[in-house]
Amino acid sequence: MDLLDIKNLDVVFPTRRGTVHAAQGVSLTVAPGEVLGLVGESGAGKSTIGNAIMDLLEPPGYVGAGEIVFQGTDLRTLDADQMRRVRGRKIGMIFQDPQTSLNPLLTIGEQLIESIRNSLDMTEADAKQRAIQMLGDVGITEAEARLKSYPHQFSGGMRQRVVIALALSGDPDLIIADEPTTALDVSIQKQILDLIKRLCRERQLGVILVTHDIGVIAEIADRVCVMYRGRVVETGQTAQVLGAPNHEYTKSLIAAVPRADMRLERFASVDYIEGGEAAGRKIDIRTHWLGAARADATEPEETLTVENLNLSFVLEKSFFKSKRRMLKAVDNVSFSIRQGETFGLVGESGSGKSTVARIVAGLYKQDSGTVRLLGRDVKGSWSDPAERDVRRRLQMIFQDPFSSLNARLTVMDIVAEPIRFHKLTSSEAETKQIVQDLLDHVGLGAQAAIRYPHEFSGGQRQRISIARALASRPRVLICDEPTSALDVSIQAQILNLLKDLQAELNLTMLFISHDLPVIRQMCDRVAVMKQGQIVELTETEALFDAPTHAYSQSLIAQMPRMDLLEPV
Amino acid sequence: MTTDPTPHQVASRPRMWTRIRESDIGYSFFRSPFAMVAAAVTVAFLLAAALAPWIAPYNPFDPAQVSLWDGKLPPSFAGGDERYFLGTDNQGRDLWSTILYGGRLSIIIGLAAVFFGMTLGVVLGVVAGYLGGWVDTLIMRVADVQLTIPGILVAILINGVGQIMLPQELRAEFSVYVVIFAIGLSDWPQFARVTRGAALVEKEREYVQAARVIGLPGWLIMWRHVLPNVLRPVLVLATIGLALAIIAEATLSFLGQGVPPTTPSLGTLIRVGQEFMFSGLWWIAFFPALTLVILVFAVNLLGDWMRDALNPKLR
Hints:
The structure holds two protein chains of two kinds. Chain A is built from 19 helices and 20 strands. Chain A is an alpha/beta fold. In chain A, the strands form four sheets. Chain A has a six-stranded mixed β-sheet with strand order 6-7-8-3-9-10, sandwiched between helices. A six-stranded mixed β-sheet of chain A has the order 16-17-18-13-19-20, sandwiched between helices. Chain A has a four-stranded antiparallel β-sheet with strand order 2-1-4-5, covered by helices on one side. In chain A, a hairpin with an 8-residue loop joins strand 11 (302-316) and strand 12 (325-338). In chain A, helix 13 runs parallel beside helix 15. Chain B is mainly α. Chain B has a domain at 100-314: MetI-like fold (Orthogonal Bundle). Chain B contains twelve helices and no strands. In chain B, helix 9 crosses helix 10 and helix 10 runs parallel beside helix 11. Chain B starts with 6 loop residues before the first helix and ends in a 5-residue tail after the last helix. The interface between A and B is medium-sized, with 45 and 24 residues. Chain B: The chain crosses the membrane at residues 34-56, 105-132, 138-158, 170-188, 208-227, 234-256, 276-303.
């Protein structure tokens, strides 16, 4: 018998502007000892399913119709008291962010023991024994001593292990894991996924794994449900769904996943998502204002060179030099980017890759070392006209599309700002025409100019950011995790756009990402960073085929395996 | 295929009134009876203040219209003279007219003082938050020191010094400006603190970084990018600050520190009136005080609602 059997579930959110059906006619089953992957992009309703099972829907949302049969009982017929007994004892939940799912004021032991006694009726001593055993089970060594630690004394991965132990403390039969590894680095992701899979097998748990990441699905799911706008569009064995998808949406989604095993020229053109490919390209880049600054003979072969860059942040201030605690964020970093090349910086969080980008962009000032841009040493001043002219030719695209645009300005004013400030055109009419051309060219349409940023989705906002960066007529573009806040299909579009623009304008790019498959698709050469240092710098293909440094090897090995995907 | 799903709608944006009604803040407003009543009362007070010379039956500052023989008459509904709805004060001025004119003065002083304090505080707050370093330290320490003394004491001090520095013959004429200056100057640290906090947050946001990469100078980034994005909390503070400034003015005038009795504000009226309380002439103090309470209450309710409506955490 199935552990969980959801039949025709409807979840309804009444709002001011009409009723939103977050889930419509969703049916799925989970068997004991099985990992069911629930995959979809933002707004697909995948988290809603988990919350509906737990009866934890945010008001005003409610279950409109359908059955949620768990171990033979329809959970919808239970009252609040009975439901509370199901939560924790029968069904456990793992949340995305281990920072916020533990109480920072209580020790790990207090939280575990309280949770165990709550659901299992044990004495304090027995509960403590069980807590120690649970921590051992999820791979925390010296469990007895660690019981007295507070959450902040654990690293992110360890904290997520504790969260898993908490979810298991009531000895549940079903675990709902909502994006359990999204906040974690790739090396820790692998460990956590392995842990979930092992516990699932050993204890014959049913697991619903909610994620946006096809790589995670490929790694541990036995079966997959693909969701799109509140509906399940495809269900099946993981190998079948990823390898030979039936539904058009699944095909699009999988085509958009950056592949780690080979480099493609472009991502396949993706339908079935907002926007679609930019079709409104009317301008001829060679004759247009935008293309006028294409590389000419004066541009040096080495467009951007960084030599012996160092930057330390002060962790603890002190009057005495010897007592100050410093963090070396960038440690003797040197590299050189050739004209028209895309150079990747890859590393885990805290490796210093974004700090390097910010030094190059002039947002941070280095302690020592030089940045040479278009043949000129950049000192970080805007007052020298010659240096200003060089620095204008370097622009940056940021990670978070929701904070990178000023909400109080129209798109016209946002994109026109660099043109107006640097007086790159002769008249205001010309400026407006160029802004409209730019918006057209990045795939938004000239009509976007009169609107405000909040009227656009994340992917569209990132297009606005790109248009703003192009408005300075740059020669060098820094992309700092430009797609890591976006859905995978939108990511494919934006990466395609960046590739096209680079080819058209012959741009030089510094591309920063934590995502190895994206790096493989975008970069010609790549530097691997760890703790502020470059540990390996090589051709991208060489890095993926035969990494030489031990750290690069482990990074490559820990990438989610995508062997299941259909070959291109 | 175009990414713009509704190109035709863009050309004809909804009319302003529809946009306000449909916005989150408008939605919240039209579903909050308290906010609507408070707004109506506040608007009524503002209108009365603006139109006082036209709607007041008498001009209390015109000696020709005031007769000492009519002094201390009770309100018409309490057995007084038909001509004087709320009665008259000790000098024979029509109390209803005097309240209209006094309320007008109170509101003008309140608005001007808040505007002065807000401008000063917001400018200093944005500068402190955005520049940081010793500028920040200097501005915020001055604010901290000032905040250790109750605002009304600061206002009394500044007002006292200001009045004394004026030549005797100009004192009556300029006392209103001195009061505005004093209240505004006692109020700026609140605005500076709130603005600085918001500016610290905005400064780290990526659109400010983008503006720096474009090469915009600091003052332009502060003006175009930081300032418009920190004004929300300031708006709330200014509304509540208006109520406080009106009270501060009334307090100053009640203590005899504010505007002179020849051009009475609500505070002056209450002070004059309370001298006659024990003689049974209750109306001279009661009606100005009631006016003050209703006005301040309405403005406060409006500010409270605005704080909730503009706070994304409470939605």
